[in-house]
Design brief:
Blueprint (H helix, E strand, L loop, with lengths): L3 E4 L21 H6 L3 E4 L9 H10 L3 E7 L7 H8 L3 E2 L4 E15 L5 E7 L2 E5 L5 E5 L5 E7 L8 E2 L6 H14 L9
Antiparallel strand pairs: 1-6, 2-7, 3-9, 4-10, 5-6, 5-7, 5-8, 5-9
Bound molecules: 4-(methylsulfanyl)-2-oxobutanoic acid and fe (ii) ion.
Family: Belongs to the acireductone dioxygenase (ARD) family.
Cofactor: Fe(2+); Ni(2+)
Keywords: Amino-acid biosynthesis, Cytoplasm, Dioxygenase, Iron, Metal-binding, Methionine biosynthesis, Nickel, Nucleus, Oxidoreductase
């Protein structure tokens, strides 16, 4: 099953519920590519010997790897970490996550600043570009095991919104404008 993504409603309650704006409407995944969000589906049972994963890591330079188990018994400062994950932020580098077990939601902002909710399940590998506003929450399964990949020494620093002057944010906006040949943020008329 391909990863699902949809526009979110504007309720701030119960983040772990799906919050689909239009219950039957999924976002075509090429809309995510336009935002610089990349995606692969791999076999999560084979992550230790997966040629495709090895190829992705090699071609993109992901020499760092660790696993993170998001459940209260396994993650130190669970509540605080989850609170920070769900606070809208950017990073100076890509965020690369491969779901090995469980599931969860990565929310990203589109070009019009709407939330897109991306449902990650076992086998989904996702790359969020540096500078994209995003957040993460568990879903009602309340559990996810993720592989984190990084180029070189990992930096997990989150810069909470607003970050319009952050170099990664500026580069990201520039990359969006180059791709679509439009000015963003769109000028108000
Ligand atoms: C634990 S991965 C998802 C949370 C996130 O956005 C982050 O780690 O920066
Ligand atoms: Fe993040």
């Amino acid at each position: 099953m391909a990863m699902e993504a949809w526009f979110m409603d504007d309720s701030n309650e119960h983040p772990r519920l799906p919050h689909r704006l239009n219950p039957k409407e999924l976002l075509p995944l090429d809309k995510l590519a336009e935002l610089g969000v990349l995606y692969w589906h791999l076999n999560p049972k084979n992550y230790e010997n997966d040629e495709e994963l090895r190829h992705i890591r090699e071609t993109r330079g992901y020499n760092y790897m660790d696993l993170i188990d998001i459940r209260p018994e396994k993650l130190e400062n669970y509540e605080e970490k989850l609170k920070n994950f769900y606070t809208e932020h950017i990073h100076g580098d890509e965020e690369v996550r491969y779901c090995l077990e469980g599931s969860g939601y990565f929310d990203v902002r589109d070009k019009e600043d709407r939330w897109i909710r991306i449902w990650i399940k076992a086998g989904d590998l996702i790359i969020l570009p540096a500078g994209i506003y995003h957040r993460f929450t568990l879903d009602t399964s309340n559990y996810i095991k993720l592989m984190r990949l990084f180029i070189g020494e990992p930096v997990w620093t989150a810069y909470n919104r607003p970050q319009e002057e952050h170099p990664a944010r500026k580069d990201y906006i520039k990359s969006l404008n180059e791709e679509v040949g439009l000015q963003y943020p769109l000028e108000a008329h």
